[in-house]
## 1
Amino acid sequence: MNGIAGRVAAAGTGLRQFKRGTSPQPERGVLIGAILDACADAGFEPSEIDGFTTYGDDNNEPVRLMPDLGMKELRWSSSVFGGGGGGIAGAIGQAAGAILTGQATAIIVYRALVQGNSGRLSQAVMAHHLNSHMVGAGLVSPAQMCALRANRMFDYYGVPKQVAEDVVRACYYHGSRNPDAVTYGAEFSHEAYEGSRYIAEPFHLLDCSRENDGAGAILLVSAERARDLKKKPVYVLGVAQGAAMGWGDLLENDDDDQYATAGFKSVAQHLWRQTGLKPADIDVAQVYENFSAQAIASIVDHGFCSWEEAGDFIRFENLIAPTGKLPINTSGGNIGQGFIHGVGMMVECVHQLRGESSNPVPDAKTCLLAGGPGAPIVSSAIFGTERPG
Amino acid sequence: MKGEVRIQFCARCRKYRWPAVFHCPDCGSWDHVWKPVSPKGKIYSWTRTWHTFAGADAFEPPFVSIVVSLEEIPAVRLLGVLEGDEQNLATGAKVSGKAHKITVNGTVIPALSWTLD
């Protein structure tokens, strides 16, 4: 049974992004701004917010946001475990659960990241997982851990390396058309991609998302309440989070059939079963790409194509709006738009389904948010323009 | 640190456990021993690090980190740095390892280093 089924909706979005190291305010100030933007977008009184959810080590305690927002009470605060962006959709699920069980009525799902306050994201993420065995092998960063999985994926499943470049090119293409993206107006070239320095093989610099300062927020309320607000509601059709047996923080001992995946074996099944939808029902997807190869694995994990089909399906022409079979990362994604631990992708799901994207997908009715791939806990959500009948 | 490689082994159902557990999910035992294993195996995956990452100062980039599937217990994979000749570095290549100590941020930790056979 699916208890979410469009009974909760995103009513407003806020996103403030700056070049790393140039945030005009400390982290909490930027976050307050993004939350107020989300409320203004929805035509919602900030003092009516009564809950918060987040993911991936956000340092901003919800209770400390209350004074700036003039909140009357806090009824819900929670974060999805795990240091990576794997929990992003799970945070939406927590908020939906709280609203649908009457524990809160208006929840902000947020993530804020300003390096001057929280330090480098990669180190915060790894702090969850590092131990001496990894450090003794020189493995200290998400880039290296994902590189190990990527090399296995290219070797074991025979995925052509061109696929990774096509994913990056699609992110650049959409970002170059988004005035709010770090790659706005930028040209992608094969020479620049392959010529960019190696970080950890097989990843060149351009295979990697690079951190920005900023904050993002979406306001979630019941579907009934959303209808009375300013913007067209974008409904949450379903959410799943977690890990299957044989996946997780296992010191690279994940099951053989999962090692080179993005970790969505159980989560994707739950998402499709819960919503009654299938990959062909998805019009557009925001596929979290911490690294290019992990986005490939995420697309396969969610059933859009098999490993054997990846070379044909995950092609640049298929990945771009408005004509691709599965346009992905239509704001530019983490690589093209900017990286505030993925929160921009959550915001783009809402913009795309309202017709506000810089790269609109004509008549898009469903949007998948595939959360941070390769993380010990992953999560995904589906948004829709209509409530299921 | 004795320079040995040992893997956790359930004293009751006699299965290897890695990563180590407190409680055996198969037989319910809380009793485990650590059995020595031969540090030999095949490369399951690898990466060559070029970027200088904070915390990896013990190694000079570029250096190769590998995941090794053990010959004696293929389901168990261990990590380590590949030393010496890298010419035949590939998934599936055979390697032999040794346990030693390295110093990271002033703390001595155990580490494995491997060479291609």
## 2
Amino acid sequence: MSYLTITDLQKHYDSYHALRGINLTITEGEFVVFVGPSGCGKSTLLRTIAGLESSTGGNIELDGRDITEVASSKRDLAMVFQSYALYPHMTVADNLSFALRLAKVSDAEIKEKVRSVSASLQLDALLERKPKELSGGQRQRVAIGRAIVRQPKVFLFDEPLSNLDAALRVQMRLELARLHKKLGTTMIYVTHDQVEAMTLADRVVILNAGQIEQVGTPLELYRQPNSRFVAEFIGTPKMNLIPANKIVRHEDNLAIDLLGQQIIFPVNRLKGPLPKSAIVGIRPEHMTLVQEGGDLSGRIELVEHLGSEAYAHLQLSSDQTIIIKAPARTALKDGQVVNIKIDMSEVILFNENDRVISVIPEEV
Amino acid sequence: MTLNQQRKLKTILTGLFAWTVALVLFFPIFWMFITSFKTELQAISVPPSLFFEPTLDNFRVVQERSDYIHHAWNSVVTSFGSTIIALIIAIPAAYSMAFFPGKRTKDILLWMLSTKMLPAVGVLVPIYIICRDYGLLDTKTALVIIFTLMNLPIIVWMLFSYFKDLPKEILEAARMDGATPWDEVVKVVLPLSVGAISSTALLSIVLCWNEAFWSLNLTASDAAPLTAMIASYSSPEGLFWAKLSAASTLACAPIVIFGWFCQKQLVQGLTFGAVK
């Protein structure tokens, strides 16, 4: 059942159109991540849901109530800010209890709630400290605690981990995932980090230039992107994109010309009419090195060893390099000419407007 | 010269410069202070005498001729009264301009400041007539109103620039926590701005305390503050330097002492407000 419904949401700043008709439904208890490049409108969307920005069109409904024109303070949402935004003049305990005191909750109840939240976030020992006496990770936990203590309808996170160092970020990411499991409260999370999006989300919303590009589970987005934008945005290293200028149909197959080499693509995986040209997308792990035969061949330009795996940069032509995932202790040498086999069931075709024109077969 | 010596020399030179500036600024006050303990004859002697037998005669005469406590009380009421009223008006004004700026906010701020560019004497006649017609001449009410209006632009500017530097997210966090605009100002903005508000208030009090133009023109005796009292010593009968100095010393003393005490509070307040 839909819990938070956003209908045709618009946001204009003078001449700038920041949100261009956002439609989205979120069910109760879901962990939804908004992700996209900077300036895509993800933070604006979150802040509009929070009521910190006013919308210029459309509406937002939460739990059956239209909150489009409701003040932030009355929306029953809690937000964790990138800068933590703790109250510098209050102790940790006062920071945690601020909302409860505003809501005129009884002292005994406040004490109990602060106690239980601070225990679950390991803040017990810090309750009497001021924010400036805390480390980055501790401040982050206080900010999360301040949101939890209120038991809001939805948690909003605005890039909450981006001020932490890499190790702490991974740890806090895990804590957030655990927290969501434990509380089961709806969470909306904004990030520009696709790894955070992939690991935390039940559903990812990819935004681009003020519009939703695609909504789906992390794996759907990874395997079945709607557009070249999504395909490139999700996945590290990026999906390889190779232009194909000649496509010929031979009965049940398409012969696609990739810089002078041909690959065979089943015609029943094509959506719509036969295109004259296309862009072929192949992820690095969907290609394997083979001794003989194979679909493509190229010259190794560089091998990157990551320990657990290796990435070979393969030159197909003077200006087209692709990346292939190789086994950890591969003996590949720079300059070597190799053959590769492509897992054709994972290949995606894009048209000249960067939309997908192929279908990925159902997984067996 | 080694780098270390260069650094030392630099420290000495800056120190020397600072002391020179400080002494130049302090000298007139010092001179006023010692003149107040001279006789009238010593006060005008050339060359001035640095060593003399101090006398408290001037202070006695000043106290006999004019009611110091009366004037001091007027100064206290007008400067503190107008500062409090100005703050009550300026805090919400600066808050809304800093956190909810509109298209015309910059213009409004400039316009407010521009009122300070007009010489006060330009509006003397209309204001005098208004005060006369409403029976406000020689009343503290008139001075409080004038002082409030006089300092309002500066107070709004100072608070505005301080509020503008407060992280917006802290207020947004309060809003998300369920704070009304009133809660936001009282429970978040004000506690974070204690230092800024005190220093602004201090400046306003000093400006009011030292204000002479309106005090002289709008008051006679009942509401005359200390500045008007000093002025009465440059009378048609001639200048009495020693007595004038004594009156000035008496007029300055309270605000200097007040400022001295506040200094510590202010430093504390300013570091307390530090956000990051």
